[in-house]
Inverse folding.
């Protein structure tokens, strides 16, 4: 574990302030970075007016949020309504306290030698998971306290999202704990001097990458704030700086999960393979560690933006199916295989590498066969529905709540009419009947009138 014995109260305060400044500046840069990358992906320039290369655009956005009118909804629970964004921001700022950003450095103009990390302890990774879990309460309470339907739906979705993807994320991290033999972040980084854990633990790494995107409400998993369905989800009733706090927390959480992926899977602040041995190991010392750490973190940030610019939003049933039927079973299966492999090597001194390789191959074959069979069954069902629709000329009426949660209709299917549509159809039918019966009634009335006039004559 990193040595913090020479740190004083002043050192802790300075480190805390520098981490806070680093995160705020990183958010400003992340907003510009995301707009430029998405602009390039969509063959447009992105921000290029305010400042050189549009670098002052995030500053203009921050000024706009500061000067906007602050509105509090009349039906909101005011205390919780104001407290919710503070919870999200506060919990997002706590994570970097245990992230090692570099090795030991000497503070300029002093004799103080300290690690580029605020603190560390034996269960630091569990502390990170705890901060992420508590931070979601800000989203849940923000949606509930707004006193509106769309924010409430967004907060309920965020609850399901956390339960689904925190499990798979935690299981993927257990693989690192088994191989490293520790949950301290600085010790996990030190165990990756020869090999980064994403190579031997590649399935766990993929599970973590997918889970981290679901954890921070980013496309294609931004269901709590899906603007096409819920206006802005849990943020619908927020404006001005309270909205900015939620916005700030989302981007800080992106940086947090990228830093965790770098620390646990990508060697932390160590130099890439081969470079650390150059110049007598100088590229793994001093401030070089911070440079490697930042490059790796922003590589993951690029992946975030890349996915947002290329993948569409999941449907809610697809989202839940991915979490519970694919991610969690895969994480559990890989964890069992890894535990057996580690036990054979540790306790029986058996070379279990062939076992691990064979198990990974079998698991890959099972996954490919399962996906192939699912795709074949889905295509068969789609062809059957299409042929039935072509033969009958009508679509099948389905019950959207048959699976326990609403699902949209597939090709060849349609939803039952809503109560309002049924009443409208009934009124139109009555109007049509009245239109048809009106000439007959008029003719009968004219006949009766003629008979009456004949009798009078």
């Amino acid at each position: 574990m990193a040595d913090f014995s020479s740190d004083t109260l002043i050192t802790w305060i300075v480190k805390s302030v520098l981490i806070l400044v680093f995160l705020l500046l990183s958010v400003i840069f992340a907003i510009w970075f995301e707009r430029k990358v998405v602009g390039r992906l969509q063959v447009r320039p992105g921000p290029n007016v305010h400042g050189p290369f549009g670098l002052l655009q995030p500053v203009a956005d921050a000024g706009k949020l500061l000067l906007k009118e602050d509105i509090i909804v009349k039906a909101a629970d005011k205390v919780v309504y104001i407290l919710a964004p503070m919870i999200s921001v506060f919990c997002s700022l706590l994570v970097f306290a245990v992230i090692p950003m570099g090795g030991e450095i000497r503070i300029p103009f002093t004799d103080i030698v300290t690690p580029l990390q605020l603190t560390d302890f034996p269960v630091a990774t569990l502390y990170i998971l705890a901060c992420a879990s508590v931070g979601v309460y800000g989203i849940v309470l923000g949606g509930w306290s707004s006193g509106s339907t769309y924010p409430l739906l967004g907060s309920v979705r965020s609850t399901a999202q956390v339960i689904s993807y925190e499990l798979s994320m935690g299981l993927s991290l257990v693989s690192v704990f088994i191989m490293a033999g520790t949950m301290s972040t600085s010790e996990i980084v030190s165990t990756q001097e020869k090999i980064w854990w994403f190579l031997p633990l590649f399935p766990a790494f993929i599970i973590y990458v997918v889970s981290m995107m679901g954890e921070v409400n980013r496309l294609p998993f931004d269901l709590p704030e899906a603007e096409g369905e819920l206006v802005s989800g849990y943020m619908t009733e927020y404006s001005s700086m309270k909205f900015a706090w939620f916005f700030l927390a989302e981007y800080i959480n992106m940086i947090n999960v990228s830093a965790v992926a770098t620390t646990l899977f990508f060697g932390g602040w160590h130099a890439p393979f081969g470079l650390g041995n150059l110049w007598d190991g100088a590229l793994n010392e001093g401030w070089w560690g911070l440079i490697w750490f930042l490059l790796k973190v922003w590589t993951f940030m690029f992946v975030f933006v890349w996915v947002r610019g290329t993948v569409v939003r999941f449907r809610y049933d697809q989202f839940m199916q991915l979490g519970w039927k694919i991610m969690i079973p895969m994480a559990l299966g890989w964890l069992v295989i890894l535990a057996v492999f580690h036990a054979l090597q540790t306790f029986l001194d058996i070379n279990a590498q062939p076992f691990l390789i064979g198990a990974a191959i079998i698991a890959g074959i099972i996954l490919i066969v399962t996906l192939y069979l699912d795709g074949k069954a889905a295509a068969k069902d789609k062809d059957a529905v299409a042929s039935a629709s072509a033969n009958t000329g009508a679509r099948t009426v389905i019950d959207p709540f048959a699976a326990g949660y609403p699902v949209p209709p597939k090709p060849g299917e349609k939803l039952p009419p809503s109560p309002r549509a049924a009443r409208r159809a009934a009124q139109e039918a009555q109007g049509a009947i009245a239109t048809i019966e009106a000439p007959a009634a008029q003719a009968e009335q004219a006949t009766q009138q003629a008979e009456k006039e004949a009798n009078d004559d």
Remarks:
- The longest strand covers residues 104-106.
